[in-house]
Amino acid sequence: MKKISIFLIFALLFLGDISNGVQIVYPRKPLVTINSDKTFFVGNENKNRILKINNEIVNLHPSGGFKHVVKLNYGQNIFVIDNGGEKQTYIINRPQPKNVSGSGVSIKTNYDKPIVISLVKENTPLRSTPVDSGLNRLQHLPSGLEFVALGEERGFYRVKLGRDGFGFIAKDFAVKVDKDDTESANVCYNIHKHNEREKFVEISLDKKVPYTVTDNNSGLDIVVYNVEHQFDYLQEHISGKPFGYSSYYNDDGVLVVSMKEFPKVNPQKPLENIKISIGAGHGGSEAGAIGCLGTKEKDVNLEIAQNLKNKLVALGANVFMTREDDSYVGLNERVEKSNYFDADIFLSIHNNSLPDSLADKDASGTETYYFYPQSKELAKILAESISQKTGFKNNGTKGQSFAVVRNTQSIAVLIEIGYMINPDDNYKIITKNFQDKITDGIIDGLERYLKNGI
After folding, report:
1. In this structure, are residues 193 and 179 in contact, taking their beta carbons and an 8 Å threshold?
2. How many CB atoms sit inside 10 A of residue 74's CB?
3. What dihedral do alpha carbons 66, 360, 35, 401 form, nearest 10°?
4. Domains of the chain in sequence order
5. What is the per-residue pLDDT across 337-346, written as a single tens digit (0 to 9) for each?
6. What is the Cα–Cα distance from 185 to 192, expressed in whole angstroms?
7. Is the entire prediction scored with pTM above 0.85?
């Protein structure tokens, strides 16, 4: 009787160790449609099991996490997931390709007679190409601004900039005005000012007109279009190393462009009094990526952001969090909060995933993103410093039109720390000791960047 009892105890312990079934976190449902020639099953299983998908053995990480790539044919694809104890069936439909009529070449129309349009939305993007994505935003402009439109292409007005230039405004963001032409603005005055932290240019005009501001290592280049001036545009420059900038028309209709200068820092305490805004990506109903182990990206992002905040405050930084709990904060609201805080640096904390079309990519490691050239240096340093502290692969720095780094008036970087769908990355980034390495890497990068400006 005693032998049987001992055997039963060991059997129950063993069964308890492997009794939980496989957890599939992606695809999200057993019946889905995926328009790709490949996808992946992401999830976790007890490491002592042998897991198979359509009789192919799935490679399990020591944590139990896995990412298993499968090919998709057109139509219905059936996958049987078998862990030796139970079976699950997933049905993935890949749609048939649609016949696309036409040549696929965009139709470019030139108006017989130019028309006048007026912007109806604040922060309307003026673009260099007629494409609603990418790094083609020249400037964000206020409502009420008028343009002469010469034609249209791909749902955009082609608008006149100066004598020979042109840009593009989405047709949804403008209305036609009953005018034959719009008069050029007269420049009343333009003056340069400065204080301890900022340099300004004020350009007084008798009407609001389009403009662009471009940053580089030597400062800001400002071009005001459609004015009574040589070539119908006016150029100004603010010299210095940009540390954030803003541009707007004030209540008197004066165009104001202000540029923060790089701060004077204490080499022993470079973060002291630096205003840093931290955005923990996603939140609330927006979970973000789901890791192999079932962890939600929004939760990991918040843990890392809170860890980072505590360390920065201890080093003398003035820190603001765009969210401090599991709440949803919209992308534009994050930017508005950071700008209201008057941040010097904005960091958006994220962890990565992949689209189905890149399912077979062996993705791992850290990458950083920026929009304005002024932020590229910090983005590059952060990718290097996080990689050095964590051992993660440095996937480099890329320019990208992400909303949270696009309209901020500070240095702004989005950090993708690791890949939630990579079992090894996922296991590490949810570990408290490893999160310390991540935040130590971010702090090292910030200090190095600030010291570089001395």
Report:
1. no
2. 11
3. 100
4. 21-94 (2.60.40.10), 108-177 (2.30.30.40), 187-261 (2.60.40.790), 275-452 (3.40.630.40)
5. 999 999 999 9
6. 20
7. yes
